[in-house]
Design brief:
Blueprint: H1 9-80, H2 82-93, H3 97-114, E1 118-123, E2 128-130, H4 142-154, E3 158-164, E4 171-181, E5 184-194, H5 195-198, E6 214-221, E7 224-227, E8 242-244, H6 245-248, H7 252-257, E9 262-267, E10 273-280, E11 286-293, H8 294-356, E12 358-364, E13 369-372, H9 374-379, E14 387-389, H10 390-396, H11 402-415, E15 419-426, E16 433-443, E17 452-459, H12 461-481, H13 492-509, E18 512-520, H14 523-530, H15 532-549, E19 556-561, E20 564-570, H16 574-591, E21 606-614, H17 624-640, E22 646-648, H18 654-658
Parallel strand pairs: 21-22
Antiparallel strand pairs: 1-2, 1-5, 3-4, 4-5, 6-7, 6-11, 7-8, 9-10, 10-11, 12-13, 12-17, 13-14, 15-16, 16-17, 18-20, 18-21, 19-20
Helix pairs in contact: 1-8, 2-3, 14-15, 15-16
Bound molecules: guanosine-5'-triphosphate (GTP).
Guanosine-5'-triphosphate is lined by residues 486, 519-525, 527, 532, 535-536, 539, 562-563, 639, 643.
Protein name: diguanylate cyclase
Pfam family, one: GGDEF
GO molecular function, one term: diguanylate cyclase activity
Length: 659
């Protein structure tokens, strides 16, 4: 099965960081771009707003200047009106009603056409003579009196600047137009303009309605600055606003009075931050101040700006959201594919575990707990909960192997070597004894991470049973291989192995080793007399009798071949071996097996050759052959010297040995 195409965790982590960095850079770039655009546009709007306020100011300035010029021109025209002057001179010389009526009419026309509030004819001393209604009495107020003298002296109209006078309920603007009859000063016409009617409306022309916009005419008066026109934002407060220049600070009126011109920012009499434009009205002491609250002026611009920006930001966020959505969607799809792959693999692994009865587990050294797969839990006879504590596991170990198992586990953990072990457990639930084989490896992701062992566990109970049966069978088989089938004593192979083994031991321990070679006398004749089957039985009886006699550990009776036997006697010196041999001979004699074919006796007899060697005197393994040769030579001598006897190897046997 193809493994899912997964990415190593550190690669996935670094990719996530890279992505985060990119997003941060993108957002940072966007923020920088936005603030840059915002600042630039704010600057542009600021200039626009300042420009538009300046334009309004200029417009109003032009209107006010024109208004003054027109007034002056009209006054000049009156001064130049020689007909009117002559009429005044005649009326002064000889006052008559028709002439007075003509003069009144002229004054009325003047008021109606040029919208003067009042027009008085005064004499050269400033006494009031006539107005549009008729004759009047009184004296020019002081400022007008001074203006009259100046006008008469200069022979041209003189302005009496806008002011309030207790005699009038309104602020008024006055002009003194001197009249001359030739070079004789006749007096003057005092023209009064109610500023409310024609001047103030000029300051209310604003292209855009702004609740905080206002224009005001101001004039410096000594150390003060005085408002000449109403301030709508002052509300109900009436009268002129007077502001000492030393306290003016950043008041726009004070700043204008001290020479600031153009657009500037200030704090007005309400304490509001305002954008103001100040300009001087030509040929007058007036200053025109137009202002608007900064907050108000910029609100609209900001609203438009924010709208633009929010559209931009919304678009940015929308595209970012779309990218994130796309990314999420792709991640979700990839995750779903991986999940499916993982589920397939887990199913496959589960099936594989079931088929192989292999479970997998993880052992966490920090929590001292095994986290196990379903199959591993089943092997340990636990419910399908997937966890087993170290203590729980230890109590399951078979008492015979628990120490060794713990030692092997501990060693693998200490040395970080692969763990390969088999041990028995006693399951708690069903009390069954099971064999398990565990393969595991310890690992540690980093210094700070806990040591972890992952591995597999397999139930090998059946395999173990089979192995044990095989072992038993093998032992039995091996025993069979070394057993003589007829007599059930050891065969020649077993004898040779025993001789080699005992010879080595005898050499190590410095002990003697004795061998007795035994031959049934005239056995051919026995077969001939009683038959081969009887011969077999005879051999069996002889073997059984001799076997019953040998009781010492290590003593071995073997059938050497045919009717020949051998007895190996570890630790027996020559006399001891002789004694055993004689007892064996006696045991067979006592069987009293009839043997009519024997030339030496009526019953079955044995001939024996005995030898005992001190192994230390024969270095080298092959020297064991000497044992056989000597025993054989002794047996040969026994046969040669009449049979039914025991001969100890000695000098008399040497000839047989050599032959
Ligand atoms: N019944 C039986 N006879 C066997 C067996 N093995 C060997 N023999 C017989 O034992 C006889 C041995 O004869 P020989 O070697 O001539 O020796 P012997 O007749 O005993 O004469 P001596 O040894 O000189 O006393 C042979 O006839 C073999 O056939 C066996 O397993 N069963």
């Amino acid at each position: 099965m193809k493994a899912p195409d997964t990415m190593p965790p550190h690669h996935a982590r670094s990719r996530a960081w890279l992505l985060l960095l990119l997003v941060a850079l993108l957002l940072g770039g966007m923020a920088w771009g936005l603030s840059h655009v915002y600042q630039e546009r704010e600057q542009r709007y600021r200039h626009q707003i300042e420009g538009s306020l300046q334009a309004v100011n200029q417009l109003q300035l032009r209107a006010v200047t024109d208004w003054r010029a027109r007034r002056m021109a009209e006054a000049a025209a009156l001064t130049q009106d020689s007909l009117f002057a002559r009429a005044v001179a005649q009326w002064r010389g000889a006052p008559s009603s028709p002439q007075q009526a003509a003069l009144r009419e002229r004054l009325t026309i003047l008021m109606e056409q040029v919208r003067y509030t009042a027009a008085y004819l005064v004499d050269a001393q400033g006494r009031l003579l006539l107005d549009a209604q008729g004759a009047v009495t009184g004296q020019l107020p002081e400022p007008e009196q001074q203006a009259l003298q100046l006008a008469l002296a200069q022979a041209r109209p003189v302005v009496v600047e806008l002011r309030r006078d207790p005699a009038f309920a309104f602020a008024f603007y006055g002009l003194i137009a001197p009249l001359f009859d030739g070079t004789r000063a006749l007096g003057a016409v005092w023209l009064l303009v109610d500023a409310r009617a024609t001047l103030y409306p000029l300051l209310e022309t604003w292209p855009n309605h702004s609740p905080t916009a206002e224009s005001v005419l101001v004039q410096r008066s000594g150390d003060e600055v005085v408002s000449l026109s109403p301030l709508p934002l002052r509300g109900s407060e009436s009268g002129a606003l007077r502001l000492p220049l030393v306290q003016g600070g950043r008041d726009p009126m004070a700043m204008a009075a001290t020479g600031v011109r153009g657009a500037f920012y200030a704090h007005d009499y309400r304490g509001q931050e305002v954008l103001a434009v100040a300009s001087a009205v030509a040929d007058s002491p007036w200053l025109l101040l137009s202002k608007v609250d900064v907050g108000d002026a910029f609100t609209d611009a900001q609203r438009r700006e924010w709208l633009g920006l929010s559209l931009f930001v919304s678009l940015g966020l929308l595209s970012l959201g779309l990218v994130v959505l796309l990314w999420q969607w792709r991640a979700w799809r990839r995750e779903r594919a991986l999940k499916r792959e993982l589920e397939r693999n887990l199913r496959w692994l589960d099936n594989a575990q079931k088929a192989a009865t292999v479970g997998y587990f993880t052992y966490e050294t920090r929590s001292e707990a095994f986290v196990m797969s379903r199959m591993a839990s089943a092997i340990f006879g636990l419910p399908d909960e997937g966890r087993m504590s170290l203590r729980q596991w230890m109590t399951m170990l078979h008492p015979d192997e628990s120490v060794q198992t713990l030692r092997i586990h501990g060693q693998a953990m200490m040395e970080r070597t692969p763990l390969r072990t088999q041990y028995r457990i006693l399951r708690h639930g069903d009390r069954q004894e099971r064999w398990v084989e565990v393969w595991g490896e310890y690992s540690q992701a980093s210094e700070n991470e806990p040591l972890l062992m992952t591995g597999t566990v397999q139930d090998i109970t059946e395999r173990k049973h089979t192995e044990q049966q095989l072992a038993r069978y093998r032992v039995a088989l091996e025993a069979q291989v070394r057993l003589d089938p007829l007599t059930q004593v050891a065969n020649r192979l077993a004898l040779h192995e025993a001789v080699t083994q005992e010879w080595s031991r005898a050499q190590r321990e410095g002990q003697p080793l004795a061998l007795v070679m035994i031959d049934v006398d005239h056995f051919k004749a026995y077969n001939d007399s009683y038959g081969h089957v009887a011969g077999d039985q005879c051999l069996q009886q002889v073997a059984t009798a001799m076997s019953a006699l040998l009781g010492r550990a290590g003593d071995l009776l073997a059938r050497y071949g045919g009717e020949e036997f051998a007895v190996l006697l570890p630790g027996a010196d020559a006399p001891a071996a002789m004694a055993v041999a004689l007892r064996l001979q006696d045991a067979v004699r006592q069987l009293a097996l009839p043997h009519r074919g024997s030339a030496c006796c009526d019953s079955v007899t044995l001939s024996m050759g005995v030898t005992s060697l001190q192994a230390a005197h024969y270095p080298g393994a092959d020297a064991a052959q000497a044992l056989f040769q000597q025993a054989d030579a002794a047996l040969y001598t026994a046969k040669q010297t009449g049979r039914n006897r025991v001969v100890l190897f000695g000098a008399d046997c040497m000839q047989a040995l050599h032959s």
